[in-house]
Amino acid sequence: MENNMNITNAQYITDIDDNNCSVKATIDGQELQVPLDPANRHYAEILKQVADGTITIADAD
Amino acid sequence: MALIKLNTRSIPDDTVTPAKVSQNLGRRNLIINGDMRIAQRGTTGTLNNGGGGFHSADRFLSQEEGAFTGAFTVSNDTDSPKGFSNSTKWDCTTADTSLAADDVFFVDYKPEAQDLQHLNYGTSDALQMTISFWIKSKKTGTYVLWLYQYDGTRHVQMQYTINTADTWEYKTLLVPADTAGVINNDTGAGMLLRFVMGAGSSWTSGTAPTAWASIVTADRHVGQTVNLADSTDNYMNLTGVQLEVGDTATDFEHRLYGEELVACQRYFQVLGGTGNNYPLASGFTSTSGFFGYGKLIRTMRGSPSFSHSGSASHFSYTHAAVAASASSSPTFGTNPNTYYLSIPSSTTTTNNAGAYARITNSGTLAFFDSEL
């Protein structure tokens, strides 16, 4: 179903081993840390908007 | 007087009708929080363009699409019909008297797919359902309840009428069985129930699907004549939402508050708020902060997203006599029932010393969201 999420400032976060563990993003005005799980509705939407070319995910700091 | 011995074998199967069966058998309602009592995120929010969300009651998502220019305050309300203590209220605060073609606003509920397997959808044994609810609105007229199956991309709709303004009305609608659309046995969304509050012509210009059919956008909300946003006098309250197998609406299944909260926590959990020292994780210090692991209250539907209210500095860790606060938001890497926690800090601490992490202020809450 359609999703109306407004996503900005997407950036990977790494864990203690320096592996990407989540994406930090501002979604509908709220800063969220989103796990890399396609079953998560936020990550599913991030993947969709990346595929659509609407957003990109920056590398971790 | 002669006694007649009666047992269940002596009752022909076809004489047992729903009306003769107890109306209070448990676990009938497929809707969690149908009586709107659980509101973990808070009790008020705003529905407007870009301002959708799980405002007020858990599991019920207020949302809009298009270029909707109206606005509603969504709140948990004590105005409720007899037998209920809460409802959710949508109170129009900014009018949109002329909806554009693509505009639509609504409240959604999504049951989990694995909880709908007994409906036998996609087979010749598919079962019909009945949905019932209490509703009160300033606007009389025809409203649409739209149902959608994610896996089969199929839809159906029902229409109901608000007959009297400002009056609680009880509605029951029959949901036809679907012998074609298969609902996958997984943790995804099995179905969508959408209570439409207003819809532009792009959603209403087709033919109403009164039986399950492949989705057609223009057919979805045909018959929705009410635009609840056409005046700031308007409001709508909803509670007592029940979806059950069969062709009969039974009394609302009142569950214990604790049961309902547990059910909601599969989709959303809040940590903190109970004092000034809410334990989060045990682990070790590093020269740049803390890392460790903690456990969620219970297993969630999937790996949740994390956010927090209050101040990041209220995420703290302690080892020996040294207490350090986060210099920026902590990092949570989540699984359905555990999380990895990293708290960055500018306070110098010993490397690899045992430590524990906590929230040090009751005004700071950690939110975990695994909603559908």
What is this structure, in a nutshell?
The complex is a heterodimer of chains A (61) and B (372). With 61 residues, chain A is α+β, with helices and mostly antiparallel strands.
Protein traits:
heterodimer; A: 61 residues; alpha+beta; three-stranded antiparallel beta sheet; 1 helix; 18% helix; globular; B: 372 residues; mainly beta; Jelly Rolls; 2 domains; seven-stranded antiparallel beta sheet; six-stranded antiparallel beta sheet; 2% helix
Percent of residues in β-strands of chain B: 35-45%
* Spatial strand order of the main sheet of chain A: 1-2-3
Number of strands of chain A: 3
- Helix segment count of chain A? 1
Determine the mean pLDDT of chain B.
Answer: 93
User: Which strand order spans the largest sheet of chain B, edge to edge or round the barrel?
Assistant: 18-17-21-14-15-20-19
The rounded distance between the terminal residues' Cα atoms of chain A is: 34 Å
How much is the radius of gyration of chain A in Å?
Answer: 11 Å
End-to-end separation of chain B: 61 Å
Helix proportion range of chain B: under 10%
Q: What value does the average pLDDT of chain A take?
A: 92
**Named CATH topology of the largest domain in chain B:** Jelly Rolls
What portion of the residues of chain A fall into strands of 2 or more residues? 35-45%
Which residues of chain B sit in consecutive blocks of at least 5 with pLDDT less than 50?
A: none
What would you give as the CATH superfamily of the largest domain in chain B?
Answer: Galactose-binding domain-like
Structure in words:
The complex is a heterodimer of chains A (61) and B (372). Helices cover 18% and strands 36% of the residues of chain A. Chain A is built from one helix and three strands; from the N terminus they run βββα. The radius of gyration of chain A is 11 Å and the shape is globular. Chain B has one helix and 22 strands. Chain B has a seven-stranded antiparallel sheet with strand order 18-17-21-14-15-20-19, with no helix packed on it. In chain B, strand 19 and strand 20 form a beta hairpin. Chain B is globular and about 70 Å long. In chain B, 46% of the residues are buried. The mean pLDDT of chain B is 93. At the A-B interface, strand 3 and helix 1 of A face strand 2, strand 16 and strand 19 of B.
